[in-house]
């Protein structure tokens, strides 16, 4: 039973990963990643870490993927161009990936870890449940917990600063609708110098033919 | 199932993610492939935590999830900012910083 579950989840995770890489449309890539994350949650359950499996489904496949779907829908899931800057990139990159896999496999399986071939020691029923992880996180790893919360806060503020409409800097928000808004705001006194400047710039090429006449 | 299987699967997923980063040119898909690599690392951490028999590796994996969430938020903010400035969403064309 465990073998069947492992191989089903492994095929799901691997298929999802290959789908992320191979799909031309970014929207389908995101959907393939959701399949991958659900399969990984099953693998986490098999490794008796129930809390992380739940966090994987709720946080990753739920919240983070909603963010991805939202951004892909916002920027538009257009296809990539077929233009290849590096010749042979599409053939070279999988070769490098296979080389990386062989290297990792040799490094792990060639190590002298005897326990790798076992299923691990027998653990108590409470292994990896929310109570155990929470106790560990709030007692022994309190500093890491606080650092993670500060990191999340900084990331949230940074995202607002990056993607906000009022970006600091001179020509930062040079989008047409921003110019249109600024022009509509500048009705009255400030539109007068703008018109005068445009008029004086228009006079410069017009003046030589107008001068002799 | 012995722990070896999980570790080999984790290396395979990591290599798939690295291949994706090398092949693809859309920043969104490159971030997705980064997620693949982070999740492969998480799987290895949890497998080793099960192998040793204590839960500290699981706390490590939880912190990795937090860092991945931060990375997604910042990456998506960058992509939205790039899109707003009408720049091409292609990492081979956004190369002003290359020396």
What can you see in these coordinates?
The complex is a heterodimer of chains A (213) and B (99). The model of chain A is unreliable at 170-175 and 186-213 (pLDDT under 50). Chain A contains eight helices and no strands. The longest helix of chain A has 26 residues, at 50-75. Chain A is globular, with a radius of gyration of 29 Å. Chain A has 213 residues and is mostly helical. Chain B is mostly helical. Chain B has three helices and no strands. In chain B, helix 1 (3-23) packs antiparallel against helix 2 and helix 2 runs antiparallel to helix 3. Chain B starts with a helix and ends in a 15-residue tail after the last helix. The chains are: A mainly alpha (213), B mainly alpha (99). At the A-B interface, helix 1, helix 2, helix 3, helix 4 and helix 5 of A face helix 1, helix 2 and helix 3 of B.
Index terms:
heterodimer; A: 213 residues; mainly alpha; globular; disordered C terminus; B: 99 residues; 3 helices; 77% helix; 0% strand; elongated
**What's the total count of β strands of chain B?**
0
Radius of gyration of chain B: 17 Å
Q: What is the terminal-to-terminal distance of chain A?
A: 99 Å
Number of helices of chain B: 3
Order of helices and strands of chain B: HHH
Helices and strands in order:
The complex is a heterodimer of chains A (213) and B (99).
Chain A: H1 2-22, H2 26-46, H3 50-75, H4 89-109, H5 130-139, H6 142-163, H7 176-185, H8 191-210
Chain B: H1 3-23, H2 27-52, H3 56-84
Brief characterization of the structure:
By secondary structure, chain A is mainly alpha-helical. Chain A has helices at 2-22, 26-46, 50-75, 89-109, 130-139, 142-163, 176-185, 191-210. The longest helix of chain B has 29 residues, at 56-84.
